[in-house]
Amino acid sequence: QVQVAESGGGLVQAGGSLRLSCAASGRTFTSYAMGWFRQAPGKVREFVAAINWRGSNTNYADSVKGRFTISRDNPKNTVYLQMNSLKPEDTAVYYCAVNQRSVWNAEPNGDEYDFWGQGTQVTVSS
Known about the structure:
Blueprint: E1 3-7, E2 10-13, E3 18-25, E4 33-39, E5 46-51, E6 58-60, E7 68-73, E8 78-83, E9 92-99, E10 115-116, E11 120-125
Parallel strand pairs: 2-11
Antiparallel strand pairs: 1-3, 3-8, 4-5, 4-9, 5-6, 7-8, 9-10, 9-11
C-alpha cells in the first residue's frame, strides 16, 4: 500500500502562482512514476502533468504547457507542481497519483495509476 498526500492548494488571483507538493510513502519513491490530475465541478477528471521515476521524462496537458512545471525530489519522496500564470479555468481539485506499472513513462492515462491522494483545492479568482 502506498500513501499519497497533497498540499499547497489555496486561493490565488489570476496571474498568480502556487506550488503543490505531494508526498508518497510505503515503498521506495524511485519505484514510482507520478502524475497530477485535476477535476473541476461538473467536469471529468483530466490529466495535468506526469514525471517518470528518474525525472528525465515529463508530460503536460496542452492547457498547462509553458505555465506549469512538474518536478521531483527523490531523497525527499516528494513531487511538485509549480503553477504560474494561473487562470480561473485552472480552478479544480488537484490530485496526485502513483504509477508503479510503467515507471519509465510520464503517463497521461489516469487508469495507469494505482494510488491517489485526497486532493487539494486550487481556486483562481478573476
